Amino acid sequence: MSEDLSPRLVLSHALGAYLAVNALPDSLIVMDGKDCVVQKASQLQGNHDWQSTLVSSDGAHRVLTTHAMPEEVWKGREDDVERVLDYAIARPDVRVIFLGASRMASITEPAYDMIVERCAERSGTRKPLIVLPTRSLLNDWLQGYADALAGLARALPLEQRDPTAGRRVGIVGYLMDRNEEDHFSNLRELARLLEGIGAELLCTWLDGGDSAHLSSIGRADLIVSLPHAREAAKVIAQRTGAKLLETGLPMGLEATSFWLHSIAAALGTSERAETFVDRELANAVPKLEWVVQMLSTGAGMAFVGDPHLLRGFLRLARELGIRVPFRGILAEAREDQRDLVRDGLDEPTVFVDPRVGQMRAAFKRAVAERDIDLLIASSYALDDLLPDVAAFELGFPSFHSHALTDQPFLGYQGCLSLVARLAERRSMHQLLRAPRASDG
Which domains does the chain have, with CATH numbers? Predict the structure, then answer.
């Protein structure tokens, strides 16, 4: 009984929306809830993201609260929500406004759509006012991010497309969870890859750019849909008439090559892509030969985090000859996770939407019986499992690992960077744990 009541490791819907706001510098979110909704921003600012601007020393925060206290949620509070929305609309530094609600406030939530309409009519604003779902069947952080991008895709004015251009690309569904160089170098790598096959990347949703920059996606001939925001990609393609191509994450050599060939086929640049991919592989493969031998020798790894990132990592692990026999999926159960759970090659132990402490015993058994010597996980999972093996932070949140210089993990350059860092972490752990002659 106590295990069933223990806290979940999966993060809230609101935090996913905060990630979107954090990556869109001229946006803010109004949260109908207690003051703690602002305090939750500390999981990003100063912790996961050293460049975050969600909270400001001058009080011009980008996470606002209606101060709805538990003893007051049963009362009509439309006036409180309108008051905060009016303030948000009047701010000259804000071009996009999201409205969400804490779980407590959503129990007796007012008619948010009507409130937003009244505020828009009274102010005459043309700023997008986006009401986020508060009672969706899937209500975790990944859904919060996807809902924010879907709302933005419906509401943001888009530039007009020139049907004669032909090779302009917009990427939708990149999880920009912080404004640090792991993500900015990923984005530069994606732009480099597309340029290599004869395409032009207009913008990526999200990429740290403002709403005017994101509007340029309306000129795209092809929308490349990444897994963190499929609905937003569909909405934009429908609005603009652009082609839509759903892909996975280009993580690892094989997945990156497949990603590029798929896009090139849609754009009619397959011949150029073939030449570019061959050249990139000729550069990358020799650099990996020795490190692959190091990593794959009897190695087993564990991964606990974002299911989309896990799927990308599994492709990389396959080409490196690495087993991943322990997996934790930090998201609510989804049908598209079945391939992560039922894997005949690794026969993994898998936890979906785990609770605090639920994985510990199974993880220790997997370390002992399946030769796991490296755990790749987010901060909360590392804190929960307290591994005796080497550990590597990847994904949201990463409180202890930051990127002040290029540290990509997507594309060809990302593959080389990530593999080198994994090998370094594993080797350093083995070195520090090795017995010394002086120990006796």
Answer: 2-155 (3.40.50.1980), 168-277 (3.40.50.1980), 285-433 (3.40.50.1980)
